[in-house]
Each structure stands twice: as C-alpha cells, then as structure tokens.
Amino acid sequence: MRAACIQLCSTDDRQANLAASENLIRAAHDKGAKFIATPENTSLIENSKSRLFEVVTPEENSIEVAFFSSLAKELRVNLLIGGMPIKISDSKAANRSFIFGKDGQIKARYDKMHMFDVQINEEETWLESATYQAGLKPTLVDVGEFKLGMTICYDLRFADLYKYYAMNGANIISVPSAFTRPTGKAHWKSLLRARAIETSSYVIAPAQGGEHNKSRSTWGHSLIISPWGKVVASIDHDQPGYCVADLSMAEVQKTRAQIPAWNQLTTLPE
C-alpha cells in the first residue's frame, strides 16, 4: 500500500487551510497514494480559546468533516485527517482525528488522550487541557490489509499506548502532529524511530511546519518510518509538501519474526 504524509502550515483561515490540504492530498493521490494522512490542526490553528469557540462546531455541523468526506470519496482513498477541533460542550472541544474510507464514510475517530500541558521554557507554556477534553480510549481500524492504531502528537511520549496497539494487532501507527520547534529539534525523529522499533510497526507522522502566527511555529519534518526503524520517506524542512512510501506487510512480518519484543511484556519481581 502506498502511503503519504501531508505537511501543512495551517492558520486561522479555515478556507485557506482546506484549499492547501486539498491541493497536497490531490498531489499525493496523483503519485499513487491510497492512504493519505494530514497533520494535527489540519483545519485550524487558533491560539485564542474565545476566537476558537466562535467558529468550532459539533461534528455533525462541521464543514471540514463534510469536505474531507467528499474528497475521500472522490479520490477513492483512505484519508486520515490528523486532527480537527470538534465542539463537545460549551467550554471544551475534542482534538479529534478522523479516518474516512474510500466511500467517504467515517471509519473511525480518535480523540487525543494526552493533553499537552507543559512549560517548555520561560517564553513558551502550553495548557491544552484548558480548551480540549482528553480522549478516553485507543482506536484501531482496518486500512486495506493493515490495521492502524491512531494517536496524536503528545501521545508520542507515552510508550505504553503504542505497546497496547502493537499487542492488539496494529501494524501501522499514525502520529499526526504539530510539534514545537524546541521539542521537534530535540526529540521528534528519535521518538518516532523508537515507537516504530519497539512495536515493529510502520509509523506515519505528518506534521505542521513553519510560522502559523506571531506566537506559534512548528517543526515540520514529516516522516514515514519502517518497522525496522528506517526512515523510508521524509520532508527535511518545515514548509508545506508531501512524501510517499510503499508499505509492505511482508516487511512487518519479517521484522516481527526477527525480534519479537513487540509482543512481549516485562515480568517484574514482586
């Protein structure tokens, strides 16, 4: 199966974000991609909670959900939209990832489980839980002959979630992200390779990159990593673009036969 990562520089202009996403999704489709993944915050990057809640809607009213459903159906692809804000109450949204099937129907949803509540340095602090409600459960879904485990961005730092996916049948794990520049430079590639190696799974990591507004910039450098931990496709900058790679179930099986740690648990003394 040929897969693609879409790299974006989303802003607070929802229509422009949809247009940019569509152009790159179509370009990846023209290169033969049948599974296409976009990053976290695909539809909108808005720092202000009040301004976010002026435009965010429940899923059933989302113009973005309808747009990407139609696009997946037209192109006959499995389309993972890595994250969109979806209103779930008057004061909270979900950071929700969707996968649309070739018929345009929603095959699965995943709400980001781990909130990015951190102080990176004296200038940069994030409190995602002030706006978003954490998801409660992992999500697995069939994509062609593969089984996909869905995660978002900060989830990447919680290895037990990835172990759960591997032990429950996942052989691809998606990590749509909007990593900050300091954390991206320090940890992005290393963590992604570690998650691929320890689960013997493909990791698909589409990212936001560039300057989104005066106070928000992200790392970019989208990657597709093999079950052996090899980078098989990448974007080596923070500008919009895409990369593609062919995924092989035989490669998953070969790697898992060589090193079975993906399916083994540590037994600690009592």
Major beta sheet summary: 6 strands, mixed
Quaternary state of the chains: single chain
Computed Rg? 17 Å
As residue ranges, the low-confidence spans are none
What percentage of residues falls in helices of 4 or more residues? 25-40%
In CATH, what is the homologous superfamily? Carbon-nitrogen hydrolase
Distance between the termini: 45 Å
SS elements, strand count: 16
Shape descriptor reads globular
Name the helix and strand elements from N-terminus to C-terminus, one letter apiece. EHEHHEEEEEEEHEHEEEEEEH
Strand content: 25-35%
Enumerate the strands of the largest sheet in spatial order, edge to edge or round the barrel.
5-4-3-2-1-16
The CATH class assignment is Alpha Beta
Could you list some keywords that capture this structure?
alpha/beta, 270 residues, 6 helices, Nitrilase/N-carbamoyl-D-aminoacid amidohydrolase, 6-stranded mixed sheet, 29% strand, single chain, globular
Plain-language structure description:
- By secondary structure, the protein is of the alpha/beta class.
- The longest helix has 19 residues, at 181-199.
- The N and C termini lie far apart (45 Å).
- The strands form four sheets. The protein has a six-stranded mixed sheet. A six-stranded mixed sheet has the order 8-9-10-11-14-15, with helices on one face. The chain has a two-stranded antiparallel sheet with strand order 6-7.
- The chain contains six helices and 16 strands.
- The protein has one domain (2-259): 4-Layer Sandwich (Nitrilase/N-carbamoyl-D-aminoacid amidohydrolase).
- The model has no long low-confidence stretch (mean pLDDT 96).
